[in-house]
Amino acid sequence: MAVDTAPAPALVDDRARARHPKAGATYAVLGLLLVLAAVAWLGGRTTVIAVDRTLTDARWAAPTLAAVVVLGAVCAAAGAWMIAGLPQRRFKLASTAAVAAFVLALLFWAYSQEGTVFRAESILAGALFLSMPYIFGALSGVVCERSGVINIGIEGQFLMGAFTGVLIANITGSVYAGLAGAMIAGSLSTMLLALLATRYQVNQVVVGVILNLLALGFTSFMYDQLKKAEGFNDAFSMPVITWGPLADIPVLGPVLFQQKLFVYVGLAMVVVVWFLLYRTRWGLRTRAVGEHPAAADSMGVDVNRLRYWNVVAAGLLAGFGGAWFTLGNSLAFNKNMTAGLGFVALAVMIVGRWNPLGVLAGALIFGFTTQIARDLSAAGSSVPGEFLQMLPYAVTLVVVAGLIGKARAPKADGVPYNPGDK
Amino acid sequence: MSTQTETPAAGKPEADQSPEPKPNFMRLFGRYLTEANSVMVTIYSLLLAFLIGAVLLIVSDEYTRSTFSYFFARPQDAWYASRDLVVESYTALFEGAILNFNTLEQYQAGQAEFGNLLRPLSETLTYATPLIFTGLAVGLAFRAGLFNIGAQGQLIFGMMGALIVGFSLDLPIWLHLPLAIIAGGVAGGLLGAVPGVLKASTGAHEVISSIMLNNIAALFLVWALGTAFLHSETKPDLVSKPVDDSAVLPTLLSSLNPSLRVNLALVIGIAAAVFTWWLLSKSTFGFRIRAVGFNEHAAATAGMRIGSTYTTTMTAAGALAGLGGAALALGVSSGGITTNTALDYGFSGITVALLGRANPGGIVASALLFGALKAGALSAQPDVPVDISTLLQATIVLFIAAPALVKAILHLRTPRGGLVTLEAKGW
Amino acid sequence: MRLELKGLTKKFGSFTADDDIDLVVEPGQIHAILGENGAGKSTLMNMLYGILTPTSGEILIDGEPVSFSGPGDAIAAGIGMVHQHFKLVGPFSVADNVQLGREHTRGLGVLSAAAARKAVLDVSEQYGLRLDPDAVCEDLPVGVQQRVEIVKALSGPKTELLILDEPTAVLTPAEITELLQIIRNLAKSGTSILFISHKLKEVQAVADTVTVIRRGKVVAELEPSASEAEMASAMVGRAVSLRVDKTPADPGEPRLEVKDLTVVSDAGVKVLDGLELTVHAGEIVGLAGVEGNGQTELARAILGLVKPDSGHISIDGRDVHGRGPARRIADGLGYIPEDRGRDGLVAEFSVAENIVLNQYKDEPYSKGGVVDAGAVRRRAVDSIAEFDIRTQSPEESASSLSGGNQQKVIIAREFSRPRRFLVAAQPTRGVDVGATEFIHSRLVAERDTGTGVLLISSELDEIYALADRIAVIYNGRIVGEVAPDTPREVIGRLMVGASAATEPARDDADGGDR
């Protein structure tokens, strides 16, 4: 077997050092700026952290200047390491550390204002709850895109779910029927995408954008029409599920064991989708179809059929996530109430690299920043909440720009498959 | 390419070969009507969308719905109720957008001035103006193979740029107004450049980065309006300072009637469309944009710089959207902009570009259509839900973007050369 | 399995890809199908494998007519296929690729990794095709990837007919030898083989019977003992000479000098590794080698699309470092890209626009940033006449032209402006015989005007016909430069990295994957 005597292609060792001057310089500059700014403005301030629910206001105060300087230094050091060259497999670690340090430093800074207290339990519990739409939306995106269909219409499926959820709950009087209705509405609206993407082979990005607009127009139109009559759009609330004594554990209790159904379903779905994707026949075929549809086709997998049903199933997830906006928050439907969160969910999917576990991490980060922004503007902080709200978007920009490693989409993502082509 | 293999129908070639007895005009015309070429797809898309709109009007109207509950007893009730509802609604849209029949009667009776008669048209043109700019912003990028979903943010930045120059400088009108307009273009161009630069340097997909920048721009506006620099000195709510008189776009028809709001921005918009057409079809830069848009690999092999094409195109697109922002800030909203001034002009720009098939002429035409829908819907509310304009817009372009769907619904024939769709690449 | 095709026909619109094909494959027989690119071989195989539905005619397996609605049906009927372009999911392991579509599960659709691994080992042991089931496919060398494909094809429930579609296109001569042996062994054990190729020597070496297809029709049934000339003329329809008339070269000053050129790919692989090459004025240097050994990157580096990680490239005596492709083209670099559809043409553009694609900014085609459509058209009209481009008009879109005429558009583009050095990568790939002869003669004429030509081709025959000097590339290096009369075997050894002088290493002990 002469073939094997040929030397393997000269792979560059992943332990070999590589330089990342662009990313490194960015982090180094950001870190140094933080240190300088802290020295200039933060002298004498303190950041107060409290455990507010179980231990009613146990407080700790930390010197802000020291914390921000240390974290800024960590960020700058990570940047310097990248400039100097570091083993390839350490790159992720270094960039994660740099970003985490930077964000933490901002937090310390933000909560150093007079009258602001970092109420750990409320904030973390709220953050987990707020990350739910991102989890459902992004998981829906994962199911679609892993099979090769770009779903940019998550926003629209959210709207359909939010609207239908509250409508069906009103008609039937049952919040659970509303949830089911939301899921069906979500999958009906993805069915259109599925049909167009598989049978009619249209451009999925363009159609996704249009479907968002269609959902916005449809729900707003119906909202105005139904508003004329009573009893179609009243708020329904869902109970908080409390896990007995577990709910009294400091920090963990309020965060994990006193939440609404959405949180438990969301966390379960992360595990379920991960298992399905990497451990089952469906997952193997889904990944194959998203990566190399012709290969799957040649092995007898019906590519477009699988894609179709994946997209429809993804709609169930997105629709359920849509119900979070109305039923989950005990709110009535309002025009455009999803306010672009579907696009954030899309970003979460990319930041999470099309992997359910990555999605969980991304969703938690984004939920956390949203919660902080709300909390700070409620506390009347002088740090503009708008900038904190921008943070998830900025982080996503950084991620897609490849400063934290390259996000690689499934190879055939967005490419219609026509079995006649080879 | 794929359209040929899609329908390997054996019947079709024979039909082509059989010599037609007399290729008279009516026969050819009939053939044209039943073919999924771009003109007919556009027409059928409009018809289908209005049909769907009618169905939604009927099912969502309480009274009409109630007549269907005894449909089998008195079907004519349901029929008349439905017909009246649809006719009334669409007439209301038409009257708000083109010509109000009441005003016409008054005018004929000598009770109204000619200017009153023009009011709906003026509103249509007013709403169409920003759409021309954002439509061009999306369309130009389309031609380079880029999906500029960020026109909304670019428009917001353009608004702010024009506003700042508009109230902070003290200059004569012949200098102040052009400067303020240019400032809008520059601000939009700067924001538009970001996705271009990111795509060129790191390969980041422009759709994702533009979405993020849209959100950032919207939040930035909220913040900026609250700062002392921008915030109105007289009003407590989130409104900006007004633009100086020397930077306000002059209205075109207010001498006829002060309510005719249409202003110079419309002329600038049409000029921008003409310029974009020239740029795309006559200039070497346009040659490069089109080559890169169709096949970046071949363009690169021919020595064209792909990255710089992306950057320049996105900057130019952003500048166009920014000009649209300037048209708002110096025009209808010169008294002060709010977070609502931008409406959904940027996103609608996507639909305008799609319906106009990324051709400047088509973009102007579809901007007029969607401007008319908007003007009509705004004047017809609350009798007709105002969002019918969004709904119709989205439905129309859904069909435009999926000609195969129209073809399948209406059983049209495949035209020579296949179906025409717009492409934006996946990530 | 006995396979019989009766009157199999496939039409795409008005184009008939396969017309009334009759064919019989006896059990355990190696049946070669010989035909040029575009003769209809792949369409035929795709019908056999259920990817395409025949327009008319029937397929009989052991006398029973069958109809396949998809590859799944074909697999179930006992047909396995090794595709010309590998159908492997890159990031998947070997085991996952092999089990795709017939997964080993523990019930409820949950995968069993152990069973999948064992299944691969069983099959690879049974046929002596050693594989590591856990290796990730995209990291494997092509030869091993093909072995994965064969194991995949043999892992069907009862594979009795194996279709191999151009299986040797990306293999080294040694790998080809090994593959042919595998095929013989499979046939001996009773598997029927359909072997599709356009390479005469392989067909002669392995086939029991040969069917020649031209323009979708069966034109000849031959014995493998038939002469090469006989097969070739059946394939192309007339007697062809692969010889091109040319005088001995008269090399002048160096036009291309490549020194110590190294390029590392995104994946971290050194695709060019200290490559050295010189091409002089007035000579054609043929770059021989198995595809994927750095030819593509070398051509792109010369054009300036790939930035070297180290080393120098000089064109016409000037170091081109820091000059972009546009500047190099303007300075007289001609470039015929290997992938016409991807790199050569903008399919939606007109023939005229394509002809000026890399000169649109120059006078007279544009002035002051404005394209002069009249000048572009005049130039196109001239080129269409000079290069015999069959098109209805200069405004016709390039996509409506045949492959040969598309290639002529590129040739016209590159040959109608002053040039000092020409890179011609796979200049006749997918081009009919007439156009090939035309292109060959133009290349020689080009040389005779004093241009330096680097001919990159995976067809040794083309290299022999045109080259004044042959350089062999292997693993990103030039491993030998030889005269054009060097025997095939010597070049073949160089192409696998063995030295020209000694026998190639035949090390059967070292199977499997590293």
From TrEMBL, chain A:
* Gene3D superfamilies (alphabetical): ABC transporter involved in vitamin B12 uptake, BtuC
Q: Which CDD domains match?
A: TM_PBP1_transp_TpRbsC_like
> Molecular function terms in GO for this entry?
transmembrane transporter activity
Q: Where are the transmembrane segments?
A: 25-44, 64-86, 93-111, 123-142, 149-169, 175-198, 205-223, 261-278, 308-327, 339-366
Which Pfam families does the record cross-reference, listed alphabetically?
BPD_transp_2 (PF02653)
Q: How does it sit in the membrane?
A: Multi-pass membrane protein
- Return the GO cellular component terms, semicolon-separated: plasma membrane
Q: Where in the cell is it found?
A: Cell membrane
Does the record bear Membrane in its keywords?
yes
What PANTHER family would the database entry show? GUANOSINE ABC TRANSPORTER PERMEASE PROTEIN NUPQ, SUGAR ABC TRANSPORTER INTEGRAL MEMBRANE PROTEIN-RELATED
Q: What is this protein called?
A: ABC transporter permease
Organism, scientific name: Glycomyces terrestris
Automatic annotation (TrEMBL), chain B:
Output this protein's name: ABC transporter permease
Q: What lineage is this protein's organism placed in?
A: Bacteria, Bacillati, Actinomycetota, Actinomycetes, Glycomycetales
Q: Read off the Pfam families from this record.
A: BPD_transp_2 (PF02653)
Q: Which organism is it from?
A: Glycomyces terrestris
- Mode of membrane association: Multi-pass membrane protein
- The primary site where this protein sits is membrane
The listed locations are: Cell membrane
The record's Gene Ontology cellular component field reads: plasma membrane
Q: Where are the transmembrane segments?
A: 36-59, 124-142, 149-169, 175-198, 210-230, 260-280, 314-337, 391-410
For this chain, one GO molecular function annotation is:
transmembrane transporter activity
**Protein's UniProt keywords contain ATP-binding:** no
Which residue stretches belong to region Disordered?
1-22
Q: Which UniProt keywords apply?
A: Cell membrane, Membrane, Transmembrane, Transmembrane helix
TrEMBL record, chain C:
Q: Which UniProt keywords apply?
A: ATP-binding, Nucleotide-binding
Q: Per UniProt, what is one GO molecular function of this protein?
A: ATP binding
Q: Which InterPro entries match?
A: AAA+_ATPase (IPR003593), ABC_carbohydrate_import_ATPase (IPR050107), ABC_transporter-like_ATP-bd (IPR003439), ABC_transporter-like_CS (IPR017871), P-loop_NTPase (IPR027417)
Q: Which domain of life is it from?
A: Bacteria
Is-annotated flag, keyword DNA repair? no
Q: What is the species of this protein?
A: Glycomyces terrestris
A Pfam family (short name) is: ABC_tran
Q: Where is the ABC transporter domain?
A: 3-240, 256-500
Question: What name does this protein carry?
Answer: ABC transporter ATP-binding protein
Say yes or no: keyword rRNA processing present: no
